[in-house]
Specification:
CATH architecture of the largest domain: 2-Layer Sandwich
Number of helices: 16
Largest sheet: 5 strands, antiparallel
CATH superfamily of the largest domain: Histidine kinase-like ATPase, C-terminal domain
Distance between the termini: 97 Å
Structural class: alpha/beta
CATH topology of the largest domain: Heat Shock Protein 90
Strand order of the largest sheet: 2-1-5-4-3
Shape: elongated
Helix content: 40-55%
Radius of gyration: 33 Å
Number of strands: 17
Amino acid sequence: MIPPAPFVIEDFRQVYEAVALPVLIIDHATWRILAVNKAAVEQYGYEREEFVGLPVLEVRPPEGRADARRVMSEIPHGFWKTTVVQHVRKDGSVFSADVWSRDTVVDGRNVRIATIHEVTERLQIQQELQQAQKMEVVGRLAGGVAHDVNNALTAITGGLNLLMEDFRGDPDTRTQLEEILAASHRVALLTRGLMAFSRQQVMRAEVCSLAEVVESSVALLHRVLERRVELRTRISPGLWPVRIDPVQFEQVIMNLAVNAQDAMPAGGTLVLATENVTISRKDASEDPGVPAGDYAVLTVRDTGTGMDEITRARIFEPFFTTKPPPEGTGLGLSMSYGIVRQSGGFIRVESEDGVGTTFRILLPRADREPAAVSSTHGAAARGARTVLVVDGDVEVRRFTCRVLGGLGYAVISAASAEEALAMLDASAETPVLLVVSLGLPDRDGEGLADRLQGADPGLGVIFLSDYDLEGDRLKAVSGGRQILPRPFSVGTLTEAVRRVLNDS
């Protein structure tokens, strides 16, 4: 058998040159680089000639060199792996890497061979996964809190509406009640934000007038904004219809307005303006993110402190805020962005430090006009017809019964499905409408509705919910039924009753 040819230095160079990962060969006595492979040249940006004689600490960021020197001197002879250390390229850019080191003798010289594996992308994916897991936990907590708050708000805002009717002839008392109602509206906006953040907010898109949504928001903004902020509106006539969730879009306007107020600590002007805009193909090519087409546009402009380029680039990131804790959560603009995009729209921002900020929201033109909205106040029906209310929250149940009783219905109520079935068995009453919470203490609200409608197909159903429904479940609940989100007012409950009974 012929012995293999001896392994020579040139053969070694060919082998490490072919390695796909960067390889540095370092003099063990001077810690200077003796040779590198092609992958190292591409990774670090140095020419091969620049690498030769370069202190190996030059590939570490300045702030980490002292620690690197200590670690290198302590690494024992043999094989060693160092995970997630910072390295720096010639241009100053930093990346994370795992480093495998081995001491050996090459051409009679003690050297350390280091193989570099960049792990920047891996770390980013791990961080994103950890952030997603954290957001899921926070979202569940937020959704649970918002659910309980919504129940209380339903009773609070509903009771305030009823009291305002009782004190119609007492302007001073009505003013105080309006202030309390404005505060409860702000809490309702917060809970809607929490529900949207936890992906439990129901998206109820409908064709409507953007002008009416803005005008409705302005009525609330006059109560929320401080006197140092001058609010101006410019509503263009003939504004094109849009398909949005009016309630969620009011939240977008509120978020932008409150942020504008915070940016004007010494006072200033906030302008809400609407207009119709047609984006041509040429315009779309200049802004590839917005397709050509017709848009109804809302512009929110303030004369505040503005933002620098770095802040402007991050404003839609969840939890990014320039406000000190606990003033800012960093959720308002990210949720607003999500609502606009979910509506098929686009949001653009222009701002300069010290000049002010302008947000432009472009909403695609809907293909039909909004339906006429009848008054949501007054009786939906009169007579001896019976309504069954089933809800595990006593305050929500009490308020709902009071409103329905005021509309002229005979009302029977129960805290659970089993209690409701027992009451119906013992009563001669046949309800024309079921108002039921989707989440009951003893069974699913849909199950109760299915059972009662199986016996009486003409029974109308209103589900009370603040959780999102998706796919087949949404279709099943929406078919011939009405979903009413909490918190709800006297007007929204009245309108829901009118719609369901008219459909029935």
